[in-house]
Structure prediction request, 141 residues.
Amino acid sequence: MKAISIFAISSLLFSLIACGQTAGKADKNTKTNRTMNTSMISNATAKKAIDAFQSADKTTWLSLFTANAELFDDGNKRDFKKFSESAIGHERFTSLDKVENNGLTLYGKYHSDQWGDFKTYFTFHLNADGKITRLDIGQAD
Prediction:
């Protein structure tokens, strides 16, 4: 009888530990952990872009840019489409600390699966139609 009781208790404890570990891992990958308050972004296009970036929505993200949109990373020209393909779903803001330039320049803490955590900025440049023609990104102080 004692063997069954010890076995039952051990099984119950193992199940509880396993459930706790699974729940923790699942939480890290949910979209709710990728969301943050973007209400301080006053420019509607920039807000839509960041909301799409945060939720790993490549279709919406790309639809906000012109076909020949440019990307500059710390002043160096990069391929915008390659950046979008590799970053979306693997990079995100973890906090938004400051918004300037009529809602087009954002500063905050950022996470990259490849590069880790650091402070960054995004500056969006729009054409007369409200499409994003250029995105400047880089590390912030």
